[in-house]
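User: Batch of two.

Assistant: Item 1 of 2:
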Amino acid sequence: MAIQTRGAWRSWLTGGILFVAAFVILFMVPVPYYIVQPGSALEVRPMIQVEDASNHEKGTFYMTTVSMREGNVVGYLASQVDSRLELVPKKDVLGQNGDPKRYQHVQEEIMRQSQYNAVLAAYREAGRPVEEKLLGVEVFRVLDGMPAAKVLKQGDIIQEADDRKIESAEELLAYLADKKPGERVRLVISRGGDKKEQELELASLAKSGGEDRPGIGIEPVTLRRVEAQPKVTIHADEIGGPSAGLMFSLEILNQLGDQDLTDGLRVAGTGTISPEGKVGQIGGIQHKILAAEKENADIFFVPADQGEQDSNEKKAKTTARKIGSDMAIVPVRTLKEAVQYLKEQEVAGRAS
């Protein structure tokens, strides 16, 4: 009898070890992919507050997101049979740096810039007072092994280059593009409120894995301040990326006006926005269509395909057709086009 008990115990132990091993392999062993899938359709109104706004929305504006998590064996296998799951190589997401925290930090900065653009686009469309003040170029990151690593720090603000006033990252890059590796450039920077002069020798950015062109070895961000009347605030929590720009602009514009653009409709969408109100392409459009469909959206604004490389409009319509959605897929090139479409829907609704 004791022998049988010992044998049963060994069987249980072997089974337990095999179960733990299988669990570890399936759920704990990483694969070199991220798994991307539909995220959420989030109400924009709670995120944005225009001072003294009195316009009450009958409907809702939604921004759409994708969900992204590190892949494991289970996720990899599931993606082979579930079309909602997309495998994206980690290197395509994280770049050469390969740091997830760094990636999230970058996405949050991109979101911040997108919010500035959304305010500018909306207030200009509404004809309301708004001013953009360019304050210089912030050093967002210093690249290892490049000239800047010796003299610049994250958070430094570059204000001049060789006695030339620098107000934006584009100006700095354009100025350096005319030089050659080995040439020197003198920068005036602000660090903690103190002005300093630093001289650097340019090097090829290929040394840090970039293009073969001259640079000092930083990731630059235009430091700017947007002042609008009435004042507007945006709180998007930890959401990153630029793709909520269009929907932010629509919500701001709706709060600025006395006409409810939603007119009782559930309006979802995506797209980057420029300060001039131009709508740009984004990633993961098929997942965002599914997120909007789950929220029973009536309309989905998608960036219109304009160039040979553009595919948002095509993929959005294909996805909607595959899932049998009756959601209106509306391609737009500008904020103005989106506003005009909504106004036309209101007129059509009154006529019917």
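Item 2 of 2:
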Amino acid sequence: MRVKICGMTNIEDALFACELGADAIGLIFYEKSPRYIAMEQAATLVAQLPEHVAKIGVFVKTPPDEIRQHITCLGLTAVQFHGDYPLDILAQFPRESVIAVARVGTDFQVQTLTQFHEVATAVLLDTQKRGLYGGTGETFDWQAAIDAKAFAKIILAGGLNPDNIAEAVVSVNPYALDISSGVEAAPGKKDKAKLRRLFEQLAPFLPNRQTKGFPFD
């Protein structure tokens, strides 16, 4: 199981998460997000990260050429597509580097995830909330994530924090976990005590573990 800490905006938080055992950090390139990071700042940040830690770029309705520019300049490991991207856009990128996103609401149908088989290596499930693309701080019914495992490699997101992370692992056992607002002191600023407690809660599920990034094997 992999652990991604998303919404990084500064090197201090990123390095601390890596020290605790994060396999990946998420960088949000959506200007309306309180966790937005400009490409210039991101370049300084990723240059100091351990080599084994994956760098995931999070994009919302960003044109493909602009995404490619970020990939080239930052050496991104994978790209996370929010905002109802058409499948033909996702198909322009190598499948092994594409994370599709499905927002789970009351009308979510797990069978719809089959559309991503040919274009994405994994699907991130997040809580559906109008006007927001991640960072809701709210969970959804995890039964949807359990059922979704039959249709895709699942990255579980949405309201995860030190208090519910163990239950999430036991209940869902996803390919990966994605945590953002649940370990923050404020939007874009991580809380070291929460991060430490998160990994303490995860320790029983990650015995003798060596971080290997997001190879999607």
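The CA atoms of residues 11 and 44 lie 8 Å apart.
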